[in-house]
TrEMBL record:
Keywords: Calcium, FAD, Flavoprotein, Glycoprotein, Hydrogen peroxide, Membrane, Metal-binding, NADP, Oxidoreductase, Peroxidase, Repeat, Signal, Thyroid hormones biosynthesis, Transmembrane, Transmembrane helix. It is a multi-pass membrane protein. Residues 1244-1350 form the FAD-binding FR-type domain. In the N-terminal section; belongs to the peroxidase family. This is NAD(P)H oxidase (H2O2-forming).
Length: 1525
């Protein structure tokens, strides 16, 4: 059975060599971790086993909360009272220092309770104010760091299961301090050669660390060194605490190799494993024998264990907290302040200190965790140290602890010194130890009633100390804690309480150990071998492994008696040694602030960098696009003309750049050309007596100022003085011909520029001029016209004397200077004919325009065009007048349309029977439009704030008239006459407002109700999605804030981790489900199902943006939280971080945390997180509306980085720093649907779609008609995505189908507004088609649905198209008329189509479609209204005649002069509120009206506002669907 167990264990722990060992080892090999030693309970005594309490725990709450101040005295104050005293008192029994440190080694062998618990809990010890060691400045704020010990997580749940600590090593004396508490540790120490342990630089010294984290690597309190290099690798993790405990470990390292060498000599055929295991069992047995039968009796004062009864399987060897935390700590009283070193000849060595001075011994307080050992470097030095320890007598066994442990015990780097006695007292409270009196009672010891009874001898020699201790416990002995009580009772060794605890502990360890060397049933040793082991003592071990001979050390190395060799020179006192270094503090973040700050700034610059890159890409795209347009323009118009005249640069002001120009004098005029050869400015030189020219006489003499009366001055800079001289010479020659004087004056350039009247200053003068002119006309207040009190007198004079040029007059009217209207009007107003308008001349004209009657205004218009001044207009003059008005439309009419309009108006004016007409005939022609003339005015630039009242009346009238025009279609004369019969719209509107509009509060309530009704599906989906997001976020926040106690998060980085994990959970949900919003094919399919009643599929892209913005906000919050976290991690102890990240960081005692850059750049989450921030910055910047429109390809490419984002996110979370990966749980379902959608699109993209017809329409519109793929089904208003590989890219662009579903082919109308669409248009030019030979083929993806498909669900629908946004309605209108013609049944009874365009010529193709619709619309389902926005409003005097022409043309020919359609054409922008209000009156029975708009955001926003305003009322409900482009 034993052989089977041995084989089983070796197969598990021997890494695959069990077959070889079967014939070599015939006994059961003990495990290194202590498991299966006890047959009663295999876990007893193993690594991580619970402590075994002798008495129940005493916690403040009965569970885990310790009893602290003020219920118990301050540990530091108690330490100073209890353990303070002189050093240099020798042991009463002459126990040696070697005996003392062997006892420490025994303690390390069976217990290790120094590891801190997780989560970290702190019980820092307040230092009394004014403490001479720790608080010399009397701040009262100093605390000694203290963390609670490791405990069993299954304990501490209730009073019946209070907190119980665990032991980090085995409780057996099984050599764990020699071989380590695990097989991996042992394998690290082994050489796997000859059964030996690995040696270091010397054969008799262990190797030094640096490769592993097994050894505890606490920092040196004197130097701050914390790296593992320089520490010996031994079985005892704490062996390097000081050189003296390390020497004990080296002894047993040597002894194992000594035994292994002997066995190898005796059995050369044995394998390494057999040699190792035999040497191991012999070494462990020897250690067991010395510890219990030599050291323990000496420690307890000849109190010995009872004879060995044999193995007792039900005995629990578990370490008791009373033993570990109190009884064994009595050794601290025996620890000297220093340790001697001597050689074999009894020469005690001088010790070299850190500063080069010497001392008689190694100072204990300065030897903790030394890496650089000045005095103990070689094996011989270790021998000298051991012999010195054998000759030195320890401190007395009493209550006094030397200052090296009481005041200068090593602490953490944050506070490098601490108090061992205070720490021991606090540890007892942490472990919940019972009081001293309760322990006495449990051990059946006589009770004590007073403090004096504890130690009568001490009461006699030091009653003051005893009294002081009693006062700290309020004189209540029942409060006295175990460790202070044990110290007080100590006399020549442990007192009765500690002795009983120690004896009990070692007896249980021996009797419960199945592998105890005296157990004859385990097959380890024979009787003979047991006797041989019993005869080995510690002296024999030392003689075997050191250079000492038998005469160099005494017979009993644990005691020194008179006559023994090499007595110590003197009992060491602290004053004889080098002083202890004082406590220092360390900020872990020192030296990292600058780097950390710079790195965070770099992270914040990611969006800035991506923005700059986007700007560069945008500039590059604009440059290429402009170059492309210029190349096309040059190809069409030939090369640009070279500049004429003398080249120069015009200066226009200090804040503006100089413009390259050329100047030329010709026919008494000075012409200024730009570099393209176009006339930039023309100055009349003949209307002034003399010409003043100012020249600069400094700064290389390049500047020239030409004073121009009544205009702004011309300031020129020439490249060199000679060119300026040529210009002056040339100018003098030209002026000489017209006999005009020129006066030249020189002055400094600075004064010359100051003298110049710039264009900007001239504009201010003109603006003030016009304001004051209107103030005279309209009699408005001076402040509204602009006060001239602050203007210098010279400037005020210039304003009053100012005369407008023709170009300034045209600019004031927002017209071109060469306009016929401007020419006629300026000629009429310029009464003196000097080419300028004076203040009075301008005023006379404005009075008529602003206050004149309709007759006066019509007479003024007549006079403007009566060139001959004979009171009649000829055919040519009348046609010229009409052309001037048509010209104002900025190309709204084609040449043919203009001629048709002029012909119709001339016929109406009676020119068929007359050669000329009088003013009476002209006024009769305008008789039907008195109202238009009444409110006609000049729309002068900048007059808005001046003519407020006039504008208010005009706008009011405009709204009323247009409101009525919607109700009465203009394509029926009868209806038109009825329409105009409405004479009192004000009363009608006012009455309706009183009836339907409530107070503001009710309006808001009604608006809110309509908003809910409009967007209920959106709101429900929004609430569900964001509720889930908030739910998963709060769940993680709650977990890490309150429930994740085992991780230590609530006690360490509460805010940072909570925000980081919460936001990460939200992002983990949003990122995957964002994919569903771009599954176009699945969305289109789902729209046809019942799901469309609950989910607003048409708002998928808007929802995608919303989710994306939420995700980026959470990502930023996640990043900022981790910035805070990393800072906290960088200033936290490694022991704390090891609780948070047990899979990544191991607490090896070094305390120093990883630097901030390790978290950012050397961990998988850090690197992937930084990369994610960079990628997301580029994605979000290029996805913004501005950059997406400028460079769609850049948006396309950067958005494909989503693949990188998801890969990095999976990797980012898979490292599992804090929790197991969860992102994939959210990712799998939507990613599968997304892949399915992609497969559907890819299956279509593989099919080339041949183009059957291509047509280049005006305004850059390309009409493509291509073959309809088989099985391609779509509905009107849907859109597709197309790609053209001939353009060198596979990017897809969305366009709305303009064909109807019943048509056999598909058609698109694509406007060239960017690089891709412009290149696509270029591809279908005649030149390209000749080169290619055929139409380039397209790739098609779609169709995809939008909200415009729902127009059939409303009885009345309003379709609003702006610009190219009219394309979806082309398909809808054709589909509507087709369904109507075949008597198809659908809900829609009336459709109003509003077409908003800058000019009709911009989208002539739409006119063709609407004309087709009008011809097929026999049931009058469609009512079309066209708005031309480039033409001024109809009550502007400049366009009154144009309006008259349009209405007359509509009346006579039943079609629009502008569009050729029967629909009404309006000038300006549509008044949506008035229109929607009229719909409520025309269709009172309709409860819901669908409004569908497509166009620029400004248009859809205005429609949305109008719908919201109408929904405040209780009439028809307007439901708005929109799409922006």
């Amino acid at each position: 059975a034993q052989e089977h167990l041995a084989l089983q264990w070796i197969c598990v722990n021997g890494f695959g060599v069990c077959a070889r060992w079967l014939s070599e080892i015939t006994w059961e090999v003990p495990r290194f971790d202590g498991w299966y030693n006890s047959l009663g309970n295999p876990r007893r005594g193993s690594v991580g086993s619970r402590l075994v309490r002798l008495v129940p725990a005493q916690y403040w709450d009965g569970v885990y909360q310790p009893v602290l101040e003020p219920l118990q005295p301050n540990p530091r104050r108690l330490s100073r009272v209890l353990a303070q005293g002189p050093s240099g008192l020798p042991s009463t029994r002459n126990q040696t220092v070697l005996f003392l440190f062997f006892g420490y080694h025994v303690a390390f062998e069976i217990s290790d309770l120094r590891s801190s618990g997780c989560p970290p809990e702190f019980m820092n010890i307040p230092v009394p104010k004014g403490d001479p060691v720790f608080d010399p400045n009397a701040t009262g704020e100093v605390q000694l760091p203290f963390r609670r010990g490791e405990w069993d997580q299954a304990s501490g749940q209730s009073p019946s299961n209070p907190r119980t600590q665990i032991n980090s090593v085995t409780a057996w004396i099984d050599g764990s301090s020699i071989y380590g508490p695990s097989s991996s540790w042992s394998d690290l120490l082994r050489s796997f050669s000859g059964g030996r342990l690995t040696s270091g630089s010397e054969w008799n010294m262990p190797k030094q660390g640096g490769e592993t984290n097994f050894m505890w690597s606490a920092p040196d309190p004197s130097t701050g060194e914390h790296q593992p290099q320089g520490l010996y690798e031994l079985g005892n993790a704490w062996a390097n605490e000081n050189m003296f405990t390390a020497a004990e470990g080296i002894i047993w390292f040597r002894y194992h190799n000594y035994v292994a060498s002997k066995l190898h000599e005796e059995h050369p055929e044995w394998s390494d494993e057999e040699l190792f295991q035999n040497a191991r069992k012999t070494t462990v047995a020897t250690f067991q024998n010395i510890a219990l039968y030599e050291w323990l009796p000496g420690y307890l004062g000849n109190k010995t264990l009872p004879p060995y009864p044999g193995y007792q399987q039900f005995v629990d060897p578990g370490i008791s907290p009373e033993f570990e935390v109190a009884a064994m700590r009595i050794s601290a009283t025996m620890t000297p302040p220093g340790v001697y070193m001597r050689n074999r000849t009894c020469h005690f060595r001088n010790i070299t200190n850190a500063d080069g001075s010497t001392s008689p011994a190694i100072r204990l307080c300065n030897s903790f965790w030394k890496r650089q050992r000045i005095n103990v470097k070689t094996g011989q030095d270790v021998d000298d140290l051991l012999m010195g320890m054998a000759s030195q007598i320890a401190e007395r066994e009493d209550n006094i602890v030397v200052e090296d442990l009481r005041d200068y015990m090593y602490g953490p780097l944050r506070f490098t010194r601490t108090d061992l006695v205070a720490m021991t007292i606090q540890r007892g409270r942490d472990f919940g130890l019972q009081s001293y009196t309760e322990i006495r009672k449990a051990l059946d010891l006589p009770p004590v009633e007073t403090f004096e009874e504890i130690n009568p001898e001490l009461n006699r020699t030091n009653p003051q100390m005893l009294q002081a201790v009693a006062e700290l416990y309020d004189g209540d002995i029942s409060k006295l804690e175990l460790f202070p009580g044990g110290l007080l009772e100590s006399r020549d060794g442990p007192g009765p309480v500690f002795s009983a605890i120690i004896l009990d502990q070692f007896e249980r360890i021996r009797n419960g150990d199945r592998f105890w060397f005296e157990n004859k049933l385990n097959g380890l040793f024979t009787d003979k071998e047991i006797k041989e082991i019993r005869n080995v003592n510690y002296r024999d071990v030392l003689l075997a492994v050191t250079s000492a001979d038998a005469t160099d050390i005494q017979e009993n190395v644990f005691f020194w008696k008179d006559g023994d060799p090499c007595p110590q020179p003197a009992q060491l006192e602290a004053s004889m040694l080098y002083p202890c270094t004082n406590a220092t503090k360390l900020n872990y973040f020192d030296g990292s602030k600058a780097g950390f700050g710079i790195f965070i700034i770099v992270l914040f610059l990611f969006p800035v960098v991506s923005f700059l890159v986007a700007c560069m890409v945008a500039c590059l795209r604009k440059y290429r696009y402009k170059r492309f347009q210029r190349r096309r323009r040059i190809a069409g118009n030939g090369t640009e003309k070279p500049p004429v005249g003398i080249p120069a640069f015009e200066w226009q002001g200090h804040s503006k750049q100089m413009c390259p120009i050329s100047v030329e004098v010709e026919k008494r005029r000075l012409h200024v050309f730009d570099r393209s050869g176009s006339t930039y400015r023309s100055l009349n030189l003949g209307n002034q007596d003399r010409l003043d020219v100012l020249l600069a006489n400094d700064r290389q003499n390049k500047a020239l100022l030409l004073k121009v009366p009544k205009e702004y001055d011309l300031v020129l800079f020439f490249e060199e003085e000679s060119k300026r001289a040529d210009f002056i010479k040339y100018l003098c020659l030209e002026l000489k011909e017209i006999r005009q004087e020129i006066r030249v004056k020189e002055l400094r350039e600075k004064e010359l520029l100051k003298e110049a009247l710039t264009k900007e200053q001239r504009a201010q003068i003109v603006e003030t001029f016009i304001r004051h002119a209107f103030s005279k006309v309209l009699e408005i207040q001076k402040c509204d016209a602009g006060d001239m009190s602050g203007i210098p007198p010279r400037r005020a004079r210039e304003v009053l004397q100012c005369e407008l040029t023709a170009s300034e007059f045209a600019d004031a009217l927002c017209l071109k200077p060469d306009s016929l209207f401007v020419d006629s009007m300026f000629t009429l107003a310029d009464k003196d004919g000097n080419g300028y308008l004076s203040f009075q001349e301008f005023l006379d004209v404005m009075v008529i325009f602003m206050k004149g009657s309709p007759e006066e205004k019509s007479k003024l218009m007549f006079s403007m065009n009566d060139v001959g001044g004979n009171g009649y207009l000829s055919k040519e003059e009348f046609a010229r007048m009409l052309r001037s008005f048509i010209e104002i439309s900025n190309g709204a009419l084609s040449k043919t349309q203009a001629e048709d309009g002029i012909k119709a108006m001339m016929q109406a004016a009676g020119f068929n029977n007359k050669e000329q007409i009088s003013w009476e005939d002209f006024h009769f022609l305008l008789a039907d439009h008195d109202k238009e003339l009444q409110f006609a005015k000049l729309n002068v630039k900048g007059q808005t704030c001046i003519v407020k009242e006039v504008l208010r009346l005009c706008v009011k009238f405009l709204i009323q008239c247009q409101r009525v025009s919607f109700i009465c279609p203009a394509n029926r004369q009868e209806q038109s006459s009825n329409c105009t019969s409405i004479k009192t719209p004000n009363v009608y509107v006012k009455a309706k407002r009183q009836e339907y509009i409530r107070n503001p509060v009710q309006q808001k309530i009604q608006q809110f109700k309509r908003f809910i009704e409009n967007y209920r599906r959106h709101i429900v989906c929004f609430i569900i999605t964001y509720s889930i997001t908030v739910g998963v976020t709060l769940e993680r926040c709650y977990y890490y804030g309150l429930q994740a106690e085992a991780t230590g998060v609530p006690e360490t980085t509460v805010v940072g981790i909570i925000v980081a994990r919460g936001s990460a959970a939200g992002v983990s949900f949003l990122f995957p489900y964002m994919l569903l919003t771009v599954c176009r094919n699945l969305i289109t399919l789902c729209r046809e199902t019942f799901l469309n009643r609950f989910i607003p599929f048409d708002a998928a892209i808007d929802f995608h943006r919303s989710l994306a913005m939420t995700a980026v906000v959470l990502s930023v919050a996640h990043s900022l939280a981790h910035v805070v976290n990393i800072y906290i991690f960088s200033v936290s102890d490694l022991s704390i971080l090891s609780c948070l990240f047990p899979k990544v960081l191991n607490n090896n005692g070094s305390e120093l945390p990883p630097k901030w850059y390790w978290w950012f750049l050397q961990t998988v989450p850090g690197i992937t997180g930084v990369l994610l921030l960079l990628v997301l910055a580029f994605m979000y910047v290029f996805a913004s509306r501005y950059f997406r429109h400028i460079s769609f390809r850049a948006f396309w490419i950067t958005h494909y980085l989503y693949i990188v984002v998801y890969i990095l996110t999976v990797i980012h979370g898979s490292f599992a720093l804090l929790q197991e990966p969860r992102f994939y749980i959210y990712l799998i379902p939507p990613s599968l649907l997304f892949l399915l959608d992609k497969l559907i699109s890819l299956s279509r993209k593989k099919v080339e779609i041949p183009v059957v017809r291509a047509e280049l329409l005006p305004s850059g519109v390309t009409h493509l008609e291509f073959k309809r793929p088989s099985g391609f089904v779509y509905r009107s208003g849907q859109w597709v995505r197309i790609a053209c590989l001939m353009l060198g890219t596979d990017e897809y662009h969305p366009f709305t189908l303009t064909s109807a579903p019943h048509e056999e082919t598909l058609s698109l109308h694509i406007r060239a507004v960017g690089p891709w669409t412009s290149q696509l248009r270029e591809l279908y030019t005649d030149e390209s088609l000749l080169e290619l030979g055929s139409y380039p083929k397209l790739y098609l993806d779609g169709p995809f649905g939008e909200g415009h498909q729902e127009w059939v669900d409303f009885e009345v629908s309003v379709l609003v198209g702006g610009g190219i946004g009219v394309t979806p309605f082309a398909s809808i209108l054709k589909d509507l008329v087709f369904k109507s013609s075949i008597k198809s049944k659908f809900m829609c009874k009336k459709v109003y189509f509003i077409w908003v365009t800058r000019t009709q010529r911009q989208f002539e193709w739409v006119s063709d479609i609407i004309r087709e619709v009008e011809e097929m619309d026999t049931q009058e389902l469609v009512s079309v209204h066209t708005y031309i926005t480039q033409v001024a409003e109809k009550f502007d005097l400049r366009t009154t005649m144009l309006y008259v022409c349009e209405r007359h043309f509509q009346k006579v020919w039943n079609r629009s002069l502008f569009t050729g359609l029967r629909s009404v054409t309006h000038f300006g922008r549509p008044p949506f509120v008035s229109f929607f209000n009229s719909l409520q009156e025309v269709h009172p029975e309709v409860g819901k009206i669908g409004v569908f708009s497509c166009g620029p955001p400004g248009l859809t926003k205005n429609v949305e506002k109008a719908c919201q305003q109408m929904n405040k009322r209780d009439q028809a409900h307007f439901i708005h669907h929109y799409e922006n482009f």
